[in-house]
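ESCALATION

Customer reports they have been waiting on this structure for their group meeting. Please prioritize. Original submission:
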Amino acid sequence: MRVFEKNKDIFQLLSEAVSEGILVVNQERIIVATNHRTNEMFGYKENEIRDQNLNMLIPDNLHKAHDTYVDEFSKTRDQRRMAHGRTLYGKRKDGLQFPIEVGLNPFNLSGESYVMALIIDVTEKKEQEKKIKDLNDQLKQKIKTRTNELEETVAKLTQEIKLREAAESKIKSALQKERELNDLKSEFLSLVSHEFKTPLSGILTSATLVGKYTKEDQQDKREKHLRTIIGGVHHLTGILNDFLSLERLEKGKEVYKFTEFSLSKVINEVVYNANMLLKDGQNIKYPENIDEIEIYQEERIITLVLTNLLHNAIKYSSEDTEIAIKVDLQPTKIIFHIIDQGIGIPEKALKYIFTRYFRAENALLIQGSGIGLNIVKKHVENIGGDIYFKSKLGEGSEFSVEFPLKNSLN
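Update from on-call: job pushed to the front of the queue and completed.
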């Protein structure tokens, strides 16, 4: 302490020339000297804090932490900033805390150790930092808000684009369907025109010729042309029935009625009608052991299916061939097989055979609407059955239809 008394004038001269607060403590952490800036900073008069413990300038709640900083400094005693990277606080006379930065400079004088602290009030600096931080936080929030708004806008635009693309796709699909429908209409009209024109022409020709055969010995010729007329009428009736059935299926108006009936009765009717369409030398092999069979099913649909398949077998087979009908009765189902020795189906056409209006390339010159098998398949599936086939080009086809057997008591 006496050392500083001797050098008081020199210390005052040097310390008052700087803008920082200067404070000197001895090894016991007693304040031995301050400059005017330090006194002003902490709110004390000159010499009011001299000979006082350094803790009077430190907030009470920070004494322990400050002691730790001092102990760390004492171990090294090198010139450095105190508590670097941390915010320090001083305590004014009125008890108000304020942020400070402290630089420590150890030195020896006349064999005694001292530490000179350069103190800077950083209140304005901290306030500026806080303002900058607040501005940065506000900016970050604005950026975040704007980013969210942009993301929402992008999401909305993306959704709108998807909706527009979906709408465009629907429009394109609708246009494509309309074009396909127009093509089908054109194809349908052409098909109907051809299908009706050919049998009508045959009916007209035969009707004209029948009138010319008036003699008794010309009865065979008359019967031949009458069969042609009857066959043509049956063919036209079949086409009309197909179109009407197709319309009912498309509109969901088809109603199925299940009854118990004699299987032989149905097959007899189907074969009887088919006999009128047989070509020269063709014959139908009747199924065996069906006279006593009674089944509970949709009689009208079984008749329609067997009629369609049998007529196809006759139409796509040449003269002098056999068409066989086989029946496989099982406990839960009945299976019909229609087997012919006809032209068969090309391999590349197999997967399209049940497609509406489809005609295999080897059947284009043979009369047909291309809707019969499509209708058959829909009816069979509607009542829980199944239809499938096997065919070899030039050797014939076998179509098989399964119908579930229903209990008449249900």
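Sent to customer with the following note: The first strand starts at residue 21 and ends at 26.
Escalation resolved.
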